């Protein structure tokens, strides 16, 4: 603007000089003033150009830093996923150990009841033997008239002794069984304590990694400066998701062609309105609502607690199980006939690519991956790449 003003002054002075007889010294002073202003303007222009160059350089540096932080965020969340997976395995082991301990306790109780019964039987045997011992063996031996009675009594004594010996042996066997049960129970208790310590250690490791992730997330958020940048980022994230699905489909087709396993997946058409919920919780984001600019939600968000199991909504085969920018740890299940379900923001993935899952099978755990500050599950349904409204397909809770 100032440059235009200087040029206007120059034109005005020149016009006056041509139309009016103005002293040459006056014209020189005017032109000199214009020259000084023009030089100032050139210096201002150079400053502006330098500032633009610095801004471009800073922008490039910020973009590079943003990409680096994204990679660091990915690594941190993958480490969290590994720790969470170990923790889940420990929990499953703890459940099994608890079931085993419960079974051993029941066996112990049953054994103790059996021992008590044997003790009662043994007492009765001893009582019978005592009563039978009132016979006089000498009289019986010399009383030949009652030889049959003698034979019966001797047989009865033999029977009692044999039965008593067998029950004593059984009693000793039951004692040995009880000792074995107690030993196994003690060993299980030791293992249980060790598993508890492992669980505590893994929980601390998980919390530390989450804290690191939140710090990196705070730095990353500072790189996003405008709504336009957010829109571009969201659009790119959706393209990345579609690209990941396409790559996974091609890989699945190649794997299926070289595999002898034939899986018959008929799609979800007959299950519309009957699909089970992927996880309990409140649906906070609704399909089709404006997200940022012209970008709209292609799925829904379930708000729930971290570590909550995520279930496959229907039978299918795991097509994708990896980290994806903006979505965090993602599981994609192929249901056949072009139907797919997408589960994002997971804390841990419990299934591998190629695994066959049934409706209700746990495939992952709810988390905060992908740059989220609150635990949630992002869920999509797609048919041949087109996003479907999950509320029309999920069973009403």
From TrEMBL:
- Which positions fall inside the M23ase beta-sheet core domain? 297-390
Leader peptide range in chain numbering: 1-38
Q: Which CDD domains match?
A: M23_peptidase
Coiled-coil zones:
38-121, 178-254
User: Gene3D superfamilies from the entry?
Assistant: 6.10.250.3150, Glucose Permease (Domain IIA) (2.70.70.10)
Keyword vocabulary terms for this entry: Coiled coil, Hydrolase, Signal
* A Pfam family that the UniProt record links to this protein: Peptidase_M23
Q: A single GO molecular function, which one?
A: hydrolase activity
Q: Which organism is it from?
A: Agaribacter flavus
Protein name in UniProt: Murein hydrolase activator EnvC family protein
């Amino acid at each position: 603007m100032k440059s235009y003003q200087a040029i206007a002054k120059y034109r005005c002075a020149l016009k006056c000089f041509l139309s009016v007889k103005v002293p040459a010294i006056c014209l020189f002073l005017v032109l000199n003033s214009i020259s000084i202003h023009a030089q100032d303007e050139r210096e201002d222009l150079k400053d502006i150009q330098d500032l633009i160059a610095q801004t471009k350089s800073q922008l490039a540096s910020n973009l590079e830093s943003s990409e680096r932080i994204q990679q660091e965020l990915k690594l941190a969340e993958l480490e969290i996923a590994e720790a969470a997976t170990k923790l889940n395995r420990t929990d499953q082991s703890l459940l099994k150990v608890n079931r085993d301990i419960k079974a051993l306790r029941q066996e112990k109780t049953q054994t103790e009841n059996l021992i008590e019964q044997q003790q009662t039987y043994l007492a009765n045997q001893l009582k019978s033997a005592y009563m039978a011992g009132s016979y006089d063996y000498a009289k019986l031996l010399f009383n030949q008239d009652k030889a049959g009675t003698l034979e019966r009594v001797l047989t009865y004594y033999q029977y009692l002794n044999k039965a008593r010996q067998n029950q004593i042996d059984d009693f000793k066997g039951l004692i040995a069984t009880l000792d074995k049960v107690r030993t196994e129970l003690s060993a299980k208790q030791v293992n249980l304590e060790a598993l508890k310590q492992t669980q505590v250690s893994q929980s601390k490791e998980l919390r530390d990694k989450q804290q690191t992730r939140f710090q990196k997330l705070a730095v990353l958020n500072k790189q996003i400066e405008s709504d336009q940048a957010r829109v571009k980022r969201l659009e790119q994230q959706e393209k990345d998701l579609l690209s990941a699905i396409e790559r996974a489909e091609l890989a699945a087709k190649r794997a299926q062609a070289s595999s002898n396993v034939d899986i018959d997946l008929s799609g979800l058409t007959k299950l519309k309105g009957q699909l089970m919920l992927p996880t309990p919780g409140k649906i906070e984001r609704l399909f089709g609502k404006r997200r940022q600019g012209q970008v709209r939600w292609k799925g829904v968000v379930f708000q729930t607690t971290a570590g909550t199991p995520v279930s496959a909504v229907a039978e299918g085969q795991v097509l994708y199980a990896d980290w994806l920018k903006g979505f965090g740890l993602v599981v994609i299940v192929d249901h056949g006939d072009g139907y797919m379900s997408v589960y994002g923001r997971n804390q841990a993935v419990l299934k591998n690519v190629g695994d066959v899952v049934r409706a209700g099978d746990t495939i992952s755990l709810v988390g905060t991956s992908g740059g989220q500050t609150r635990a949630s599950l992002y869920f999509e349904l797609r048919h041949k790449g087109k996003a479907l409204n999950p509320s029309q397909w999920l069973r009403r809770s």
